[in-house]
Structure formats: C-alpha cells, structure tokens
Amino acid sequence: MTKPCDLSAVEARRLIGRKALSPVELTESCIARIEKVDGALNAITAIDGEGALETAKEAEDAVMRGDDLGLLHGLPVGVKDLQATKGLRTTWGSLLHKDHVPDYDDPVVANVRAEGGIILCKTNTPEFGAGANTTNKVFGATGNPFDPDKTCGGSSGGSGVAVATGMVPVATGSDHGGSLRTPATFCGVVGFRPSPGMVPRTTRPVALLPMPVLGPMARTVEDAHLLLLAQLDLDKDDPFSSDDLLRIPDALSGVDLGSLKVAVSTDLGCAPIDKDIAKVFESKVKAFGSNFAEVQHRDPDLGEVHEAFEILRAIQFVAAHKEKLENSRDLLGPNVINNTERGLNYSLPDVAWAHKVQTELYTKFRAFFDDADILICPTASVSPFPHSQLFVEEINGEKMPTYMRWLAMTYALTMALPSSCCIPCGVDHLGMPFGIQVVGPIGSDAFVLEVAFALEKALAGNKETARPEPKIKKLAKGKK
C-alpha cells in the first residue's frame, strides 16, 4: 500500500481537498520517512516536527470547515538552507551562521506558506551554495539516495535527496551554474530552472546580474509546476520581475511531441563530457527520438563561454564574500575562498569583455530556436562520484582547469538565460540516475514545462528511460 509520503504532490493535494487525506497524516508520514532514511543520507539540516504538525492540524481544520484552500494546502515542503525560514535554523551551510535562527521568511518562503505549504525542514547545501557537491563544515556531506557514498550533486543536493526519498513531496532549490539541475539529475528527480525574474530573487548581492534564480524540485514535472505556481510573484525588488513572466498555465496538458522539431546536443559544442555518459545520452536519444517530428543533431554557438562565466560569477562572489574573506577566512570553505580570490584578480577590462561575450552568446542562443522548437541535452557530464571527492578533477584523462569546468553542461546554458527543465531519463552505464535538460530561450517557461510534461510521460513507458526510484528499505538499514 502506498504510504502518504510517497504520493505525488498533486495527488496528495487533490486528496486533501476531497477530505480523503489528512494533512496531519501526510506530515506524520513525511516525518517518519525522514527518521527512517535520513540517517544514511544526511539531507535534512533542521526540522520543525512539532510546529509542522500544529500547522497541519490547522490545515485539517480549514478543510473540514470548507475554507478556501491554497495551492499547497497541507503539503509539507523542504526549504534549501540558503533561504531564511522564520523560527527555523538557517545556516547557509556556513560556520559563520551555524546557530542562526531568523525572525523572518525569505519572500519566496513566505509565498509558499501563504499558499498553505507546511515548512517542515531545511535541506543541506554547500557553503553559500558554492559547489556541486553538497558538503560543508557545519553538517558534512549529503549522500546520494542510490548510493550514499556518492555525491547527490549540488548545491540543491539536500532538496534533491529529500524529494527523491519521499521525505517531502516538493522542495525549493536555486540554480546558478547548475545548482538545481545537477542534483535533480543525480537524484533522479525533476528540477526546473525558470527564466530570471519569474520567481523573484531579492537576495542576490548584485541584483543586475540575473544568472542566479530560484526554482522548484519534485519527483514529477506536474509536482514541480505546482510548487512553481506558489513561488511565482511580482516583486520589484528583483529588477527582472515582470507580469509577462507570470503567464504559466494553472494545469499542464502537454503538447503533441509529434509536431515538434527538436535539436539534440551531446556536449553543447563546448563542454567536456565523459565518453561513457556521451554514449548513454546517444542511446537515450535513440529510445525517445521517435516521439518527435524531427531530431536534429546540432550544437548552439556558446562562444567563449567558460572564462566569461567564471568572471561574471566572480562578481557575485566578491560582492558577497570579500569582507568574509578578509575577516573570517579560517571559517570559510575552499570553494568560497577560491571563487572570491579568483574574482579579486580580474580587472575592469576582463569584466567588460565577459559582459560583451554574454551579450553575443545570448543573442545567438535565441536565434538558435528559429530552426528548432526545443533543445535537449544531458544535464551532467559525469556519473555521480564519491562525495569524499570535492569536485571532478579530470574527464577522459583531461585535467579540468577549474573546479567548475565539469559543470559546463549546465553553466554554459545559464549564460544564455534559458528556461530549462531537468527530467529523469533512466540510469547511466553505472546504474545511477541519468537526466536530460529540456531547454528553451528566455520567456519560454510555459512551453518548456509542457514539453517536459509530455516527454516525461513518454519516457515513463520505456524501462530504459523511466524514472528510477531509490530503495527505501535498503536506505533504512544503512543508518550511519
């Protein structure tokens, strides 16, 4: 019999609205799942079980009274530990904030609460979100739900693990160089990177650089869409927030995949990718390609993306962490130190050059879709690796020049400011989750979600591409 915590968010919300599922029962089930498996995974950094159950009882009473119910009414939600939660420990994965308990909610967290979401727990992240391996000096490493000794990706790794294992039906994430998409792939779940401004992000240290965004994580596209609807807002504290971006359908119906012209790219023409992962992707394309009217093997022109990305990313790090580096270096982890120090070495001409490169890249990327409806590519360049290894040092025998280079499959697209939905696509050559990105140009969010929703259904019908599921009983026995 399906446990309440294993229900999809959409189905659980439907049952709650019909008085067929109690929010208390669902919350108790999620808490029990956390207690059962998180000992082996270390995804949860703080939990408010008592407060969540009190809120769940209030939600149940509202249902019984016949009150108007919010989009997420009665659904437990995990919040990435980069977002402040009132009354619940928020550390940003940093020793500088290891005992911090905010007296306010991040605006997007407040939106989730306003739509009836129950903030149950915080999920682990690398320090200040720096890195794609979820580990920090406060809580340690988070394990992959398919092999706890391997990384779950990052920086939204705790959220990916939590939704994959049913600790919560949905969780918040954020994405700059792939922080939402990489853990979605490594954990076998869905991660949606929206266009800048769709989900307001008012805490960026440099507001006019729109690359970092907030978005949802869930087990299905439909569930991610549900959380996205609760996250959407018009907030002029984010200069990219716009009414035009809020035109997301209330429900997904899918599109006719057979009418679409799709471009597929194994490496985006610029990213290092493990030769075995490349073969896996090519075999997946053969498995699902017949669903489309036309499949083109074509790379976008992303130009000199690598150094430009490093420079523009460094602006954020210097703005956010220069004073920390000067005053509290001994409390910082290597990724924050590395990024900030590298940023301090760039010059104004370097920054000007990077902005020029991104502008050209952005324009060319939009033009790419003049001859394709959608772009599909792998999400990660490698299979999940041991979390004791901080990052990927070499691919196919080639040494990576920076700790970020192995993430080029995601960060190269970030520079084009796309809408991108990562969906599970079976397993790779090592039996670990494999994911693909469904990508469109800025502002195409509704279309990208509809394509991802339809493709997800097609993938589910083939054992080679269906979403893998972690073995909960095995994880329960593997408590550390």
What does the model show?
With 480 residues, the protein is of the alpha+beta class. The protein has one domain (4-477): Amidase signature (AS) enzymes (Alpha-Beta Complex), CATH 3.90.1300. The protein has 14 helices and 17 strands. Strands 1-3-2-8-10-9-16-17-13-11-12 form an eleven-stranded mixed sheet. A hairpin with a 2-residue loop joins strand 14 (394-395) and strand 15 (398-399). Helix 2 packs antiparallel against helix 3 and helix 5 (157-164) packs parallel to helix 6 (181-187). The mean pLDDT is 97.
> Which residue ranges are poorly predicted, with pLDDT under 50 across at least 5 consecutive positions?
none
Tally the helices: 14
> Which class best fits the helix and strand makeup?
alpha+beta
- List how many beta strands DSSP finds: 17
How would you write the strand order of the largest sheet? 1-3-2-8-10-9-16-17-13-11-12
Largest sheet: 11 strands, mixed
- What would the CATH topology be? Amidase signature (AS) enzymes
State which percent range the strand residues make up.
15-25%
Radius of gyration over C-alpha positions, nearest whole angstrom: 21 Å
The proportion of residues forming helix, as a percent range, comes to 25-40%
Shape: globular
**CATH-level-2 architecture:** Alpha-Beta Complex
Our measurement of the CA-to-CA distance between the termini, rounded to an integer number of angstroms, reads 28 Å
Supply the CATH class.
Answer: Alpha Beta
What average pLDDT do the residues reach? Answer: 97
Number of domains: 1
